[in-house]
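Field log, afternoon session.

UNIT: design team B
ACTIVITY: writing a sequence onto a fixed backbone
BACKBONE:
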């Protein structure tokens, strides 16, 4: 499983490249654009072919799920903590909390095909009581796109959850990250900073197709 994270700041020919990646089989595109407001997200999504919207998971402005046929929503770490804390104060289970949150977006649970979240500590991921479809854990290796974001080499073989490793992922360390127990990779700089992004993505897809 290959999850592509959007570059934080728009890059040259970004949407042209993104559409090519969709054509090559990209199934999980995490839309994370902290510098764009709601209108900016709308404009970005409208420039992507509608037939690919159902492969997009949004990190921000979750209410977009009620306006577009998106794949799902992603909870960044602080957002997850805030929502779950609110649920605890109402004495709700995490399942009830997420269901109520999605209802507040004007959407039904069935419309949200994928719900995921970010973690930076394996213990917190292991102890989380909500069954996310998958979990992004970082940084496994030192980040390509964030200087000073040092890798921690997490070994998650003992955790029986679907965990996607992020941080410093390239097509050259897929076997290593798989040995650490990850069931897929989240990649950002390994694609957007690459001189051969399409070829690198295809190599990653091929790796997971054959394992």
């Amino acid at each position: 499983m290959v999850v592509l994270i959007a570059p934080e700041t728009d890059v040259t020919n970004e949407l042209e490249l993104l559409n090519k990646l969709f054509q090559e089989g990209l199934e999980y595109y995490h839309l994370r654009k902290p510098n764009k407001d709601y209108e900016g997200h709308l404009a970005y999504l409208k420039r992507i072919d509608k037939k690919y919207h159902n492969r997009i998971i949004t990190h921000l402005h979750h209410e977009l799920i009620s306006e577009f046929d998106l794949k799902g929503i992603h909870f960044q770490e602080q957002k997850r903590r805030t929502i779950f804390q609110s649920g605890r104060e109402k004495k709700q289970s995490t399942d009830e909390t997420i269901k109520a949150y999605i209802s507040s977006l004007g959407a039904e649970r069935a419309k949200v095909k994928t719900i995921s979240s970010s973690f930076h500590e394996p213990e917190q991921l292991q102890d989380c009581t909500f069954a996310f479809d998958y979990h992004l854990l970082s940084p496994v290796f030192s980040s390509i796109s964030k200087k000073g974001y040092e890798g921690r080499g997490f070994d998650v073989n003992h955790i029986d959850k679907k965990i996607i490793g992020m941080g410093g992922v390239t097509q050259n360390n897929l076997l290593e990250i798989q040995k650490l127990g990850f069931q897929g990779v989240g990649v950002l700089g390994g694609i957007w900073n690459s001189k051969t992004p399409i070829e690198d993505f295809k190599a990653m897809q091929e790796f997971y197709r054959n394992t």
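LOG NOTE: The radius of gyration is 17 Å.
NEXT ACTIVITY: expression trials, pending approval
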